[in-house]
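Sample pair:
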Amino acid sequence: MDPLIEPLHTRETAFSVYRAFRDAPHSFILDSAMDPRKFGRFSVAGFEPFLTMTAWGDIVDVDCQGWKKRFRANPFLLLNDFMKRYYRPFRLPEFPFWGGAVGWFSYDLKDFVECLPNKSVNDLPVPCLSVGFYDRVFVFDHLKEKAYIVSSGLPDTGRRGRCRARARLAAAKDILSLGLDRGADRRGPVVAGTIGSNFSRQRYVKAVEKARAYIRNGDIYQANLSQRLSVMITGHPCDLYGALRRISPAPFGAYLNFNGIQVGSISPERFLKIERRTVQTRPIKGTRPRGSTELSDTEKRNELIASAKDRA
């Protein structure tokens, strides 16, 4: 059974449509806000997944339409089991995503890949993995200026799946019929306090010198010294993401509202794209595109060598 696809007749932006259900359980938008002729062609949004999976280390909570169970398992292996169970070989070549798993993976999942000492203190009550499985999504084709609702009927199949797909599609249209927030792009959050950091300037400079020493000794070749900035704001967290995308539009943006935790992300880089047996990565920092001739390759290589930023 192929998914049901229905055109969404609206002139609203993908972000404006998302705001209509931004507070719904496990809502998300994968947001492209740049040139649709390059990497910003599609945006996808959804809410109310039929299955959620949340991991706190090896304690994994699963909720599938009210059926709840707690597992003691490797989150990667359990997620792989669910991916196989709900995989359907649908063929929608015009859409990059018609439904499936969306969520976040934290660095703490490293403990299931390699054995390294844990020296940091986990002082944030955030799960190391949170994923939703979506049977219904909104797809926006920015190049063709068209939008669609796609409903697969999962986890049901056959006649029950077709009935569920119709019902879920109709419910999505009902939510949008209640009205869209057309003022979304003109509002933003209000900062209600001072911005604080978990690093003092002295400690940060000391950490930089330590990283440089590691590099000189050949222990590492790169370090990402990040700091946590915190501030109180008034307004909706989604407005903060909206302000960020206006200031710094990017082809790979995302906003997720999962279990009272909101994650906003904007990146100009694609980490990985896997299509059949082809894997593609598109880093930006420290790279140049390949040239069409040996001479142009040499010129680009020399640019890298001469760049103080890239050499750093």
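The chain has seven helices and 18 strands.
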